[in-house]
Structure to design on (533 residues):
């Protein structure tokens, strides 16, 4: 499968003092792994140092269902990053995960970029591998169910 | 202890607003600062507090250049585009509590030139927006999301679909700002007509945002001087008193994608507090200077402040209500959309002119009470209520 966007965009190298490493290790294995508090059982995303709900330091990482629904989107036409100069329109969605306390993720919608995007529609994760480079990574994209 | 009416804006200064200044940021800020201090009828040595922008310079550099020997208050606000407006509350608190007497707030940048580097041109200084940010770098950029318009478009699209917001709603905001720009000497878009049809025909940048939903990119600087009310009585112009102010941050502030209620923005938290301090109702104000980096952002702020109910901004902005001559004239200088982008400090200088009664062709008749907002850094908000 071709990647949705061309090469040349910044690599999502682990950030935040490696706080997000378990997420990226999970995506390499085509698993969706996010933070969950061992004390109050709430999911949270993106990665944080402590639980936003109960302030527990006892955060774990848990695999969650690879399905969500579209909360919002945009259709980008003006290329800001130089790597997208010849790209044309592309769609970026906010996807909420109903099985994980409705946390939201950013991703591209793998579809005709000019087609209607139904807010509320169900989507499932598609793992887009980027094996080249010093640090291979996998992006989580989405397609309509 | 309330700071209501205990301080006033007494000086304003601005450079020309251009595309291609050929100047450093600090050079422009010093011009605007000297003008603001002179406008107040004060001397640089009267200044004992400085709030610079987050980046481009720092308090001590400005103090050294201006000859401020006794700098008692040097703070920096980190709220992106809302920083200069939020700084007004900080100045009012510091002065009202006796920490210092007179505070200079300034902002200058090469918002046009720095985005278009040329070979051989020395690099400009950067903004200190350190909060841009793990979420953006790790989880937005790989999907082609790097510019503010792309982050605010998620909110705009959700709003548009949930409330059936017509394109004309944001069109009225763009057109009103353009009309007002024609009356302003410093407005970059002065003389360039834009009708609703022109607005609707402008190209998509990031749906649902069009080119004419987006503000200008310009170079320039502005400055204001705030002093204690008893000192203000002896300055050069009619003082413009700070009745109330507040800042607010959405939750979580550092990631716009994850907020449970994306329309609960910084101003949703700040507005009730500012109105309480000022002891007024939102509908009492005579004009609106609302931070307009994007038209949709103006609409979200109008709703968050309670100028209208959520989802009803179209009814508020139509029929000339936000144009000069209407009940709530918006951005009477043209705003960031059609005057210049100076992080909204030009909204404050315009509010001061309105309340001095020196706004010329743009003067709001009998203006007594003005509202200025700031927005930045993924939805942080600030609000200042001014009176003459």
């Amino acid at each position: 499968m071709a990647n949705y966007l061309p090469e040349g965009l910044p690599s999502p190298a682990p950030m935040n003092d490696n706080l997000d490493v378990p997420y990226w290790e999970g995506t390499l294995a085509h698993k969706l792994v996010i933070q969950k508090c061992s004390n109050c059982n709430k999911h949270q995303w993106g990665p944080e140092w402590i639980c936003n709900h109960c302030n527990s330091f006892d955060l774990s990482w848990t695999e969650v269902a690879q399905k969500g629904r579209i909360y919002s989107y945009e259709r980008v036409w003006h290329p800001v990053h130089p790597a997208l100069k010849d790209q044309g329109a592309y769609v970026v969605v906010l996807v909420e995960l109903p099985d994980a306390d409705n946390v939201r993720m950013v991703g591209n919608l793998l579809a005709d970029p000019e087609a209607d995007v139904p807010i509320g529609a169900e989507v499932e994760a598609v793992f887009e591998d980027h094996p080249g480079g010093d640090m291979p990574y996998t992006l989580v994209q989405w397609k309509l169910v | 202890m309330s700071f209501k009416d205990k301080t006033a804006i007494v000086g304003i200064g601005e450079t020309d607003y251009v595309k291609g200044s050929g100047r450093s940021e600090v050079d422009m800020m010093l011009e605007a600062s000297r003008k603001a201090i002179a406008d107040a009828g004060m001397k640089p040595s009267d200044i004992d507090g400085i709030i610079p922008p987050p980046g481009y310079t720092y308090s001590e550099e400005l103090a050294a250049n201006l000859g401020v020997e006794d700098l008692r208050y040097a703070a920096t606000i980190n709220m992106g585009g809302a920083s200069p407006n939020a700084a007004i509350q900080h100045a009012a608190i510091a002065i009202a509590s006796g920490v210092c007497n007179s505070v200079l707030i300034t902002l200058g940048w090469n918002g046009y030139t720095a985005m278009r580097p040329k070979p051989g041109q020395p690099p400009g200084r950067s903004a200190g927006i350190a909060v841009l940010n793990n979420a953006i770098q790790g989880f937005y950029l790989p999907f082609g999301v790097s510019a503010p318009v792309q982050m605010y478009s998620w909110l705009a699209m959700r709003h548009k679909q949930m409330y059936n917001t017509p394109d004309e709603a944001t069109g009225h905001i763009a057109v009103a700002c353009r009309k007002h720009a024609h009356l302003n000497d410093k407005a970059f878009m002065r003389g360039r007509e834009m009708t609703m049809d022109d607005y609707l025909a402008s190209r998509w940048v990031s749906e649902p945002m069009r080119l004419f939903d987006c503000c200008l990119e310009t170079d320039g600087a502005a400055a204001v001087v705030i002093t204690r009310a008893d000192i203000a009585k002896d300055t050069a112009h009619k003082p413009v008193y700070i009745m109330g102010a507040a800042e607010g941050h959405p939750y979580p502030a550092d990631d716009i994608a994850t907020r449970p209620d994306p329309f609960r923005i910084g101003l949703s938290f700040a507005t009730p507090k500012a109105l309480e301090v000022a002891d007024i109702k939102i509908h009492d104000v005579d004009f609106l200077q609302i931070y307009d980096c994007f038209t949709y952002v103006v609409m979200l702020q109008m709703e968050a402040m309670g100028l209208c109910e959520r989802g009803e901004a179209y009814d508020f902005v139509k029929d000339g209500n936000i144009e000069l001559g209407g009940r709530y004239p918006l951005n009477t200088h043209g705003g960031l959309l059609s005057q210049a982008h100076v992080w909204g400090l030009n909204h404050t200088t315009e509010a001061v002119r309105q309340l001095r009664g020196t706004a010329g062709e743009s003067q709001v008749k009998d203006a007594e009470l003005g509202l200025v907002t700031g927005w930045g850094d993924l939805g942080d908000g600030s609000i200042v209520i001014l009176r003459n």
Chain B touches chain A at residues 134-135, 137-147, 149-150, 153-158, 161, 203-209, 252, 255, 257-258, 260, 262 (CB under 8 Å). The longest helix of chain B spans residues 25-39. Chain B has one domain: 7-114+215-387.
